[in-house]
Design brief:
Structural class: alpha+beta
Largest sheet: 4 strands, mixed
Number of helices: 17
Distance between the termini: 85 Å
Shape: globular
Strand content: 5-15%
């Protein structure tokens, strides 16, 4: 009776030990081949998708490693090479090298271990490493159209999807790469138009719709993005992130009540979607239903304690419910996690506005404006604060 739980426990421990090693070998494979086939700096991130902060940096010539201080985060990683002018066949080799290298290295180690007849525990760990590498190979080489969101706001896809794109669309890949580069350079309007053109030319792929929608969303073309979102729904099955995008677009178009079912649908497809929890909570704060917003924002933070937006939104809900000290503390936590978060400064401005400190409120709102002039509802708060200050000055005179 006790044997099954014990075996499961041993397997779990072995997987916890070997998976970070698999991630390291995988990204090292990408990195070494990229180092050989490109001319510029190659960066490997272990424990993040491009986060250099809170990481140990190791530099070996053009090769730079970033290891997150928290080893429990080492379940993911990425490799980024700075050379943009790389031949298609070289990109294919760099992409394949990741999942293949982790498996190849584990097979070599296993062969040596058994040929040398090393201790049984060593054999067990290396067998677990080989199984982990096989899982990594399958998980990465099977194309997945769900985007991976990078720390800098960009997006990428798994190795299989990248390979599929490289091989299937060799004829238009340079144009596609240029459009993707426009997106990464935050030229969202142009990027959206390029992705839209591909679709109109007959490349009706779900990921192109998603890229166009995201680009138009960032460009502030909400109606156009929502139109493409409807086209996506007609031709493909929407995933959890798609419903989050739908909800965001309706929110920006001030269709607040209509946006809530989209976030709820996103959660029905993926209960761990932190963005869905956060944005449903945020919309409820706009609707001034703070008691309903608070549990959603609690859940977003429970899923990701470093999610700055959820902290500042929860802070606003607490402030509006009269818990000023706890709300202020949440917003400060948000700023500690992300000092460039314009929404945290906006909510800090609301805190001071509700306290009657209109001068400080204006200061915080202007900080938010400086960071991001497109911060949602910020113009209205600035206008109300300036009116209050003008009234105060007029009364004093």
């Amino acid at each position: 009776m006790w044997q099954t739980p014990f075996i499961l426990l041993v397997c779990s421990i072995l997987f916890a030990i070997t998976w970070p090693v698999t991630v390291l070998l995988h990204e090292l494979g990408h990195g070494l081949v990229a180092l050989l086939l490109t001319r510029k700096e190659v960066r490997v991130y272990i424990g993040s998708y491009g986060k250099s902060a809170e990481s140990l940096a190791l530099k070996l010539g053009r090769f730079i490693f970033y290891f997150r201080y928290n080893p429990f985060a080492w379940r993911k990683g990425m490799c980024h090479y700075l050379d943009e002018d790389v031949a298609l066949y070289r990109q294919i080799l760099i992409t394949i090298a990741g999942p293949v290298s982790s498996l190849l290295f584990s097979i070599i180690l296993c062969s040596l271990t058994f040929s040398l007849d090393l201790h049984g525990s060593v054999k067990l760990i290396l067998i677990a490493l080989m199984v982990s590498s096989l899982i990594d190979l399958y998980g990465n080489l099977v194309p997945n159209a769900i985007p991976i969101h990078l720390e800098d706001g960009g997006i990428t896809y798994n190795d299989g999807f990248t390979l599929k794109t490289l091989l299937r669309y060799q004829g238009f890949y340079r144009k596609y790469e240029k459009a993707f580069s426009l997106y990464d350079q935050e030229q969202y309007q142009l990027a959206g138009e390029r992705f839209d053109e591909f679709i109109r030319e007959g490349f009706e792929q779900d990921y192109l719709y998603r890229l166009a929608i995201l680009a138009y969303l960032h460009a502030g073309r909400y109606a156009k993005a929502l139109q493409m979102d409807k086209e996506l729904a007609e031709k493909f099955e929407k995933n959890s992130d798609d419903y989050v995008s739908s909800g965001l677009l309706k929110m920006y178009l001030q269709q607040y009540e209509e946006s809530l079912p989209d976030f709820t649908q996103a959660l029905s497809l993926d209960h761990t979607n932190r963005s869905a929890w956060n944005n449903r909570g945020y919309v409820n704060t706009i609707l001034e239903d703070y008691s309903r917003a608070l549990p959603d924002l609690d859940q977003a933070i429970a899923l990701d304690a470093e999610f700055a937006y959820a902290w500042n939104n929860r802070g606003l809900s607490k402030i509006k419910l009269g818990n000023f000290e706890a709300g202020f503390s949440d917003i400060q936590k948000s700023l500690k996690l992300d000092g460039s978060n314009s929404y945290a400064y906006r909510n800090l401005g609301i805190y001071y506005f509700d306290q009657g400190d209109y001068f400080q409120a204006l200061t915080e709102f202007e900080k938010a404006l400086h960071l991001d002039s497109g911060t949602h509802l910020l113009e209205g708060y600035l206008e109300k604060t300036r009116e209050k200050l003008q009234t105060t000055v007029s009364t004093s005179a």
